[in-house]
Each structure stands twice: as C-alpha cells, then as structure tokens.
Amino acid sequence: MTHNLENYLEVACGLTKEVGQIIRNKIWVDKQSVVTKEHKHDFVTETDQEVEKLLITGLSAQFPDHKFIGEETTSSGVKSEFTDDPTWIIDPVDGTLNFVHGYPNVCVSIGLTINKELVVGIIYVPVPDLLFTAIKGQGAFLNGKQIHVSKAKDLSDSLLVLELSGGASDEQRRAAYVHYVTSFLPQVHGIRSSGSAAYNMATVALGAGDCYFEIGIHAWDMAAGAIIVREAGGVVLDTLGGELDLMSRRVLCAATPELAKQVVPYIKQTSPARDD
Fold first, then answer.
1. 49-97, pLDDT tens digit by residue?
2. How far apart are CA 211 and CA 64, in angstroms?
3. Which DSSP symbol is given to 241?
4. At residue 117, what are phi and psi to the nearest 5 degrees?
5. Bigger pLDDT: 32 or 114?
6. Which value, in Å, is the radius of gyration of the alpha carbons in the chain?
7. Dihedral angle of Cα 54, 113, 110, 162, to the nearest 10 degrees
C-alpha cells in the first residue's frame, strides 16, 4: 500500500491547530475537572480528554484503516496494541501539570508509525503558536522553516534539558535530583526544565537545548519528538545507549552521538513497566 505522508501531515496539522485553540482558550481559566492518574503529580483534565477525542475522531474520518494509541484512551483501560498498521500515537496535552497551573509550555504531540517505524511527527505549542513538524527523510521544521540541532559534542559546551518526575516516588525524585545536579551542573552551561517531554525534545531539535533524557515517560510523550529530533540531525536512543524502543518508556536525545555517549554513564537506569 502506498502512503501519502504529506497528506497525513497536512490533515493532522489542521486538526492540531484546531485543538490548539481549545488549549489556548482554557489554559488561563479555572479548571473544573482535574484528577490524578498514576501518581499525585500526574493529572488529567477534561481538556485532555476532549482534545484526544477530537483528534482521533478527525483522523479516523480521513483515515478509517489507521490505528491509534492515545494517552487518555490508554489511561481509561484500553490496552496499547502496537502493530505494523499505520498508528497515530497521541498525547493531547503534553504538560498537563503546566496546563493546570496556567504555565504555557503545553504541547499537542502526535507521531505516526508505519511498520512500527516513525514516519511523521507534529509537536504544537499553542500559546506561542510554535508548530514543529517532520516527515521521515525530509527534515524538521518550525513554522515552516527548517531547523537543525546544535553541534555540541561535549558536556562542557551544552545546555542540558532535564525533568525529574516521570512517575517516581518522592524519595526517588530527591535522589535523582541530588545525583543529576551533582553530576551535571559542574560540567554543563546550565540545566533547564520545561515540564513537557515533547517541548524538551523540540528544544533539542531546534538547537536551543543540547541533550534531554527521561525514564518513566510513555510512547505518546516521545513519538513525535523522536522523529523531529532525528530529522533535525540529532540522535535518539534508549537511555542505555542502544536503539530507541518506543514502548520502553526510556529516551535519550542529543545533538550528537558524542554528547549522548558522555551522558549515558550518569543516567540512573531503571526499567519501568512497558507501554505494550
């Protein structure tokens, strides 16, 4: 079967812009329905559910034979089935904690796989209207302008992007904080944290950050970002340094292989329950 990736991207971008307006309209109003999921820092709102439903409905209408893995659908008890079929992997509101607090680093993240290979990625940051896109083999773009990762090969020249949540316990979060700050802060230019995995990966693709890693996130957090970083010239790996496994809940992306290799030994490795 022939796949028109440009058409897939165009349709998905149109829908993404539509749901982005919903996020913009609601980010600075009182949130009427906020509940927790996996842990006390893991929120879901009615906006997450509304946006995911609209995206899946819209994509299904255009591509009825495509499959879906969505954060809120999975959280409701529907098991993720990752097959060779064209599959949209969707995080409707990446950075829900940011959204709850009105912090503007909130993304719509959509990745498309065919034969389990990432072929299309979209990250949309609605509040500042930043649209990151990529098609396999065609480069990565921000609002239509091609972007590239930085040339950083050494930690001493790098800005590290780092999150410390990922479903960890308070004790684990404190231990990770001490470990990473002690390990990295003396070596790097600085450490930044946006509160959104997709935003962090887009930052690396843009060349504004040089390396990001996280353990405990999900396929929908990193699918779009992975292809966007790769198409911007970066590397995306498992945190152990091997090939990325979308279902493993571990990701490391960096501007260069040399930088990724330097970071791996400092990562506190764990093996969360897989998404599949």
1. 999 999 999 999 999 999 999 988 876 667 778 999 999 999 999 999 9
2. 37
3. S
4. -110, 130
5. 114
6. 17
7. 150
